[in-house]
Specification:
Largest sheet: 6 strands, mixed
CATH architecture: 3-Layer(aba) Sandwich
Number of helices: 21
Helix content: 40-55%
Radius of gyration: 21 Å
CATH class: Alpha Beta
CATH topology: Rossmann fold
Number of strands: 16
Length: about 500
Amino acid sequence: MPYKSTRSNDIEVHASLAILNGLSEDGGLYMRKDFDKLQIDLRSFQHFSYQEMAENILCRYLDDYPKEVIHECVQKAYTHKFDTEEIVPLVKLKNTYILELFHGPTSAFKDVALSILPHLIQGALKIQNTQDEIIILTATSGDTGKAALEGFKDVNQTQIFVFYPNEKVSTIQKAQMVTQTGHNVHVAAVEGNFDDCQSAVKKILTDETINAEMKNKRLSSANSINIGRLIPQIVYYFKAYMDLVNQQEIEMYEKVNFAVPTGNFGNILAGYLAKKMGLPIDRLICASNENNVLTDFIQTGIYNANRSFKTTISPSMDILISSNLERLIYLLCEGNSAMVKNYMDELSLKGSYEVCDLMKKKLQKEFFSGYASDEQTERIIQEVFEKEAYLMDPHTAVAYKVFQDFQKAQLNDHKTVILATASPYKFTHAVMESLHQDAAQDEFELMKQLHEVTQVSIPENLKDLDKKVIQHKDVIHPDEIKNYILEKLGE
């Protein structure tokens, strides 16, 4: 069985059970490291559609899924669900490229994976031959919540709970979540920050008492701790590369860089997995906001979450505990689960850990890191719009600024692709202020004003969002999440 816990090689499962469980019973994340079996023949991908690439990659990773099941999952996820047949179009700017990941039903990159995860879970239920109801628990810093709700609403044999930090997501993000309809959806604001939400959810996922209280129910997750969320994100790295080849921007096998706005480390980890599968990536540029724990980690080898939490204009990256980093550590230490467990225990007890010198060297060879302040983020939004008539959201602007830092470092001269993770209309206040426009009014009115100023189209799914009925008003403390779940399930 190819999937092992990052914290114990004695725990191993097939893909379907890894996806259903979400998190390993010992608190570790499911991962595989047999990349010799996952290599891609690049030339075979050159003229594939997005769907064909997705099927090919998923068939390699999902060891116990029949090919016809994967085909059905891909078709359901990506047929007529995005506002472009390309799914993730590549846009050329003067000195870089933007991979737009926000053309899905909620205008955020999470749609790419969360459009298919519900179908993968349905497939896993059949493979495992279980009638258990799946209870999806999701912590969100903004975008995952709505994308998960949209993907799982009214899905049979499933209920979904989404927890977001109260007053720490954008007005648009909050409106998307609290107006969500569906007979099986539950949404609550949590007093605290994203790390509080995430820690509480991960604790519950491994809580034996709650599992014992829920007969014929199985807890799982839609966060990128679930391997079924992570694997579909690999696809768009290959798609971007093939677009560069087919547009004659690079030669086949020429190396490129990717700059990724990074919070929970899932998006950039997908790029690392693509590289391990043979995609010619030179550097992965890890871009953080002022919650720059990852920047420091890559530069020093010390992960230290003992710092003040900052609320920024790029809220989806306001994270101090990056869960998916555990998978990277597992790969960098060549599957030494005891070492990973020690590091994670130190993080839990002391809020920090330091990797060995060899792992530091590996980190710095694969990754470049940097961060942007809010002021720098606003400057990038303004400059890129004025010079290139391209409008970025704050998270993408963070990645652009760190890409500029990378250029100044002169580490290589390969072409670089920047991942654009959200529509600028999800953060209208920050974007309007960046353009030096009056931003002192309602965010929904700002959408219209932003359109007038920029002529960039408003995504259909965001129009009239303020006119929808609020369905969810609960505000709870992190310690109340467990009882909240049990109460809702008992209704």
